[in-house]
Structure formats: C-alpha cells, structure tokens
Amino acid sequence: MNDDLLQALLPLSTPTDTPGWNHADMNELLGTAQRRPAAVLLALRDGESPLVVFTVRTDNLQSHAGQVALPGGRADPGDADALATALRESEEEIGLDPAQVTPLGYLDNFDTISGYRITPVVARIAEHSQLKAAPAEVAEVFEVPLAFFLDPANLRRYTMEFRGHRREMVEFVHGGHRIWGATAAILLNLLKRMGRA
C-alpha cells in the first residue's frame, strides 16, 4: 500500500463526530441543523496496483438513483461507530465479508446536501474478496485503479448553481462511469491529504 496514502489518513482512534471539512459551505445552504451520521468504505483491493471499489445505485432508489457511490449509508442505532456502519453497509450492499477488511484510517468528514455527515473509512480488502451487488440497492460493482485518481489530469473541476449559490465541484470519468458529488469530493479530500491536489 502507498506510504503517502497511509500517512495521509487520520488514525482509527480519531473522533468521528466532528463537522465536515465543507461544514461552513453547507451551513450557508442548510442552516445549522444537526447532521445525521453516515459512513462509507473507501475499499482498496490489495494487489500490484490497488483498486478502489465503487457501486452504481439502482434506478429505483428514492435518493441518488443511478449515481456512482462508495459502499455505505446512514448509521443504525446498533452500530458501535462509523467503522461498524461502513462494514455493515458494505456487507449488505456488495457482500463484502468483514473478515476480508483491514481498516487503515479515516478521511475528513463530509457534510452532504441531504443533511448527512459522512465519515469515510479507508481500508484494504483482500485481493481475492468476492463482491456481489445486492439487487435491491446496487445495479453494479466496479473497480478503478487508485493510480487513475492520483493523476492530476483525471480531476475535472466545474461550477454549478444550487439554490442561488455557485458551488465548485469536481468529477472523474472512467470507463463510462461519472464519479461526482459526495463521492468525488471524498476522493478529492484524499488527494488533498496526500498533497496531490
């Protein structure tokens, strides 16, 4: 695993109830209401060139239908912490066996336009891990080399209007998949923490 990446992560002992790195921007749009906790797994498949695991959400979901996402979702009352949420959701969505996961650390929290505070958990998964989409939630599971995101030429920046505010956005396009929104922002946070953006 890339030493730069490992050094960029917050340790697993870090509290995960801190505001998102974009908290001030979201307060302008959403006010100061309490954010609901959620977690995603930025899973890196072991191998000569680590691969990042993504899902495509099914078209029949109420929110973010058809979008590319990292496995994860909102915290359940029974979840001990963000890591537990990310592992539970990943098992439910893509059949990832928690025994195949080695948590490495966290990225900075991210506040979403839908009122969640996402804690991204970065982890290695075994090279031979079997992944299978849960058809009720996930239309497809795909993987992208981590090296693709580390190449500055693949980061696209654009501006969008939302509720009268101009928002600076980023996206990546790989193999016909558009990776944007919260997922792209989380990847951007990784790149910034690694000194790559």
UniProtKB/TrEMBL annotation:
<dbReference type="InterPro" id="IPR015797">
    <property type="entry name" value="NUDIX_hydrolase-like_dom_sf"/>
</dbReference>
<dbReference type="InterPro" id="IPR045121">
    <property type="entry name" value="CoAse"/>
</dbReference>
<keyword id="KW-0460">Magnesium</keyword>
<dbReference type="Pfam" id="PF00293">
    <property type="entry name" value="NUDIX"/>
</dbReference>
<dbReference type="InterPro" id="IPR000086">
    <property type="entry name" value="NUDIX_hydrolase_dom"/>
</dbReference>
<keyword id="KW-0378">Hydrolase</keyword>
<keyword id="KW-0479">Metal-binding</keyword>
<keyword id="KW-0464">Manganese</keyword>
<feature type="domain" description="Nudix hydrolase">
    <location>
        <begin position="34"/>
        <end position="166"/>
    </location>
</feature>
<protein>
    <submittedName>
        <fullName>CoA pyrophosphatase</fullName>
    </submittedName>
</protein>
